């Protein structure tokens, strides 16, 4: 897996393997997401997968021929060429059977042959019943694949087939597309190197009520915090996500989510979660002020000018968490900044890093079309030792990778 990072806008070759499980229909959403991103996708289903979704559907959505066996188009040697030429092999859903075959090097159809010949990143997204996922044989196969460098994502928890619920549900298709695009851009982005770390991430913007209808808030969508939680979970961490108001985001697979509406609620949730954490990341946009009181009834619109709104300062959640930090705990803050006549973004950020006392501070320039409510981000990563690193513009998941790499490097230096 020594490929160069994906240039912006590059069209890449993706093999989308589809296993024979009920979640096979969700592979169509993944296929659509990758083709709309401009990539060439060749679907390679198993015979069992075609009992759930027909060949014509995959061919129509991909614009590519669909085969399951090694004896079609033999002159093109597809069982070797597909894996050799791919920039990414993605398996959705990865059934217990496919995980077992991949772990043991079995090759009895086109997909398993492709997995053996692939020299690019391989991403497998499992889906199966909880008992199958938790079985020691499946867990051993997953561990073997991860040791070899295959990215096996954590499944989600939720409704399965029939009346069953539990861990084993396929991750949200949008999340799978995001992880696939991350690996196309950065093939080494998801090593299994955060296992054993307990991580707490806050995300979104707090809402401070004025009355039962109105509130004071900010433009944070929560996308950056969710990306941080998603990447950490897929690198093996035990993740708790404290989510304030977000814009219709699906819960990341393998992540415990705690909802918090106001700054006071987020403060309490973070204090509880941080008590047992190794790493705390405050990516939420916490309102600096809140109304001194909230009206019990909707404030009516009248002919006279409205009364002024009295505000009081909210607690500084990050500063409190730093002050109460446990030994060995790593603290990461986020700062949304704009420059003005008194100073530039980095000058304000350096002062904030010193004032907050955290180990790392991620600084984003904000404004119209920047940071808030966008899919992409950039900024600077400031460390307590004076190191400053520019984070190039890219998907928010790429910025998340940069943050976690810096966290691990910082913890390594301290140990």
From TrEMBL:
GO cellular component labels: phosphopantothenoylcysteine decarboxylase complex
Region (Phosphopantothenoylcysteine decarboxylase): 1-198
One example of a Gene Ontology biological process annotation: coenzyme A biosynthetic process
Domain Flavoprotein: 13-178
Cofactor list: FMN; Mg(2+)
Note describing how the cofactor binds: Binds 1 FMN per subunit.
EC number(s) per entry: 4.1.1.36, 6.3.2.5
GO molecular function: FMN binding; metal ion binding; phosphopantothenate--cysteine ligase activity; phosphopantothenoylcysteine decarboxylase activity
Coiled coil residues, start to end: none
Catalyzed chemical reaction(s): N-[(R)-4-phosphopantothenoyl]-L-cysteine + H(+) = (R)-4'-phosphopantetheine + CO2; (R)-4'-phosphopantothenate + L-cysteine + CTP = N-[(R)-4-phosphopantothenoyl]-L-cysteine + CMP + diphosphate + H(+)
NCBIfam families xrefs: coaBC_dfp (TIGR00521)
UniProt-recorded name of the protein: Coenzyme A biosynthesis bifunctional protein CoaBC
Native source species: Tamaricihabitans halophyticus
